[in-house]
């Protein structure tokens, strides 16, 4: 196991240790969250009763391989804990997510969660949003050209995400614009401005949603908690 995988596993293990029997658990997407799903699968195999809420088709398929009972028709109104990864976070625990393209479902699951635990490896440290990762914005295909123009007016350099020679398509059939804002000075205002653009489905800023970030670092973990 390489160092990064070990750190991801340490963070995932710490997060999964907070799961109790009969909880409804949000299952995040991405490589670090997938480790948490595997660990939860081991708990289910050993007799723990939990119910998972997957945040992507990929996560759903992975959870099914571990026989984790799932709610898949609609997100329940209350989820006890969601464990997910992040592409970037700042000192206030605001996040940028969506590198894997599941930002819409991830945000829906997170919004229903009593606690949102983010797990990352040591390569990710608190820094201003946008400084190391472009902001994903999910848009309906019909509107992607005009939304791209409007995002330029907000100071971004957007680029349509592609899968080989075709536009990347999300689980809901939408496109993603990856937007370079350099550093996002006011995440709350930018989030509001983007949300008001006709044709925007969702953006990848998770403002004030994370309750805890667990960082795998070397042979141990450290935690940041919302105040």
Automatic annotation (TrEMBL):
Similarity field: Belongs to the ribose 5-phosphate isomerase family.
Function: Catalyzes the reversible conversion of ribose-5-phosphate to ribulose 5-phosphate.
Protein's UniProt name: Ribose-5-phosphate isomerase A
Native source organism of the sequence: Uabimicrobium amorphum
InterPro entries: NagB/RpiA_transferase-like, Ribose5P_isomerase_typA_subgr, Ribose5P_isomerase_type_A
EC code(s) of this entry: 5.3.1.6
Pfam family, one: Rib_5-P_isom_A
GO terms (BP aspect): D-ribose metabolic process; pentose-phosphate shunt, non-oxidative branch
Active site residues of this protein: 106 (proton acceptor)
Keyword terms: Isomerase
Record GO cellular component, one term: cytosol
Enzyme class: isomerase
Domain of life the protein comes from: Bacteria
Record-listed substrate binding positions: 29-32, 84-87, 97-100, 124
């Amino acid at each position: 196991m390489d160092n990064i995988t070990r750190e991801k596993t340490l963070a995932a293990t710490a997060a999964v240790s907070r799961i109790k029997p009969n909880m409804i658990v949000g299952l995040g997407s991405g490589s670090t969250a997938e480790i948490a799903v595997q660990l939860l699968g081991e708990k289910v195999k050993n007799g723990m009763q939990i119910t998972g809420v997957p945040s992507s088709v990929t996560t759903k398929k992975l959870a099914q391989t571990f026989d984790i009972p799932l709610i898949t028709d609609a997100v329940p109104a209350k989820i006890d804990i969601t464990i997910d990864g992040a592409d970037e976070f700042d000192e206030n625990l605001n996040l940028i997510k969506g590198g894997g393209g599941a930002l819409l479902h991830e945000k829906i699951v997170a919004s229903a969660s009593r606690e949102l635990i983010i797990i990352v490896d040591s390569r990710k440290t608190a820094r201003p949003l946008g400084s190391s990762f472009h902001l994903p914005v999910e848009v309906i295909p019909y509107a992607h050209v005009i939304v791209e123009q409007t995002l330029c007016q907000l100071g971004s350099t957007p680029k349509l995400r592609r899968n080989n020679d075709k536009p990347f398509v999300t689980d809901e059939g939408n496109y993603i614009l990856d937007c370079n804002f350099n550093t996002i000075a006011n995440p709350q205002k930018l989030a509001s401005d983007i949300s008001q653009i006709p044709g925007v489905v969702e953006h990848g800023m998770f403002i004030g949603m994370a309750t805890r970030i667990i960082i795998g670092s070397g042979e141990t973990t450290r935690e940041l908690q919302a105040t």
